[in-house]
Amino acid sequence: MKTTALILFALTYVLLLSLPKLRAYIALASAAIFVALGILPVEKIFVTVDWNVIMMIAGTMGVVSLFIESKMPSLLADFIIEKTPNVKWAIVSLALFAGIISAFVDNVATVLMVAPVALTIAKKLNISPVSSVIAISIASNLQGAATLVGDTTSILLGGYADMNFMDFFFFKGRLGIFWIVEIGAFVSTLVLLFIFRKDKEPVKAMERTKVTDFFPTVLLCSIVALLIIASFIENKPSITNGLICMVLFAIGITRKLFITRNINTLTDAIKEIDFQTILLLTGLFVVIGGITEAGIVSDISKLFVKASDNVFVIFTLIVWASVLFSAFIDNIPYVATMLPVTAQIAGILQIDPYILYFGLLIGSTLGGNITPIGASANITGIGILRKEGYEVSAGQFMKMSIPFTLSAVICGYILIWLIWR
């Protein structure tokens, strides 16, 4: 059964990378096969899917559709165009903006908020939005590791290692993971500047767009504020973030329905939700649950225990193996499995486990940036582009993501060892 699961998993990802237009159907078909073969029991399907993420994506997409309709992204695009001299700086500015937001808000929500601004700028300048949306996606995924609330993997680490919000800034008298991630973000920004060095088309200021309805902007800002507040609430329901996004979407739709008195308002808003992306993520959650149930993720993790008794070697293996695995495997079950393994390794070697924890966080979170399906933020960004008529190949994505990711990981790898060895 384990061999069957591994072959099916590998075939799934090969097809996902090879046939981007059919990703949702491939993921769902693979999920169905995992269940049909009994690799993942039927009763575990529902709990395997991360409904919090699904609800959050759907709700945020809905609010973002209202946000776009209000023309606020167009106004923000006007501001950026005014302040940047050329396309290169416009793209990098958006990536930095997304990174800052993503340190405190889920990566997927960040992409959904910032990508519309990139699309608007691209339309105003008559250029392709592909590069800018990819930059936004990978920048948001990088910064998600900076704080306790920025990414699910950070939340997992905080809970397992009993770390609070401020521990990510300063911990045990040393610099925390936040500063390590920010230095990595600075280095990777230099990489982006190099990648876009030829995009020197001048950006000319245009007449500012007039926004008449600011309520969608209030809703979007409310999502940001409430997600941050919710991160400090202990023992909250697992679907809290998803409920926040869905409730605010419902409020926005109800208000618009009341104003327009037109039932098409509801159907039009639902059409704006990217169901292809939602179906893809749902299928992937089941697939990952299948290989986790089969013991593949656990077996991979246990290889580290036998690898070496040298701390530097173990640290290096954890970082770079996490980068490799997370490029293809969802990092949430991987991190959840590896945390107790790293704790066991630290106990055997009689060392402080935090150097291994932080190495795991950096490698697993940033590793997802390498491929277009390695992180939910990437899948969301590709989905947004697809809705706009742009199909992004794996090669096109990785041409930017690989140098960006490697620069950030190498920087984090060195700094964590120097600070926490």
UniProtKB/TrEMBL annotation:
Localization in the cell: Cell membrane
Bilayer topology: Multi-pass membrane protein
Pfam families the UniProt entry points to: CitMHS
UniProt superkingdom: Bacteria
Transmembrane segments: none
Keywords: Cell membrane, Membrane, Transmembrane, Transmembrane helix, Transport
Gene Ontology MF: a single term: arsenite transmembrane transporter activity
GO CC annotation, single: plasma membrane
Domain Citrate transporter-like, first and last residues per copy: 13-363
InterPro entries named among the record's database cross-references: Arsenical_pump_ArsB (IPR000802), Cit_transptr-like_dom (IPR004680), Diverse_Ion_Transporter (IPR051475)
Family: Belongs to the CitM (TC 2.A.11) transporter family.
Protein name: Arsenic transporter
Species, as recorded: Anaerocolumna cellulosilytica
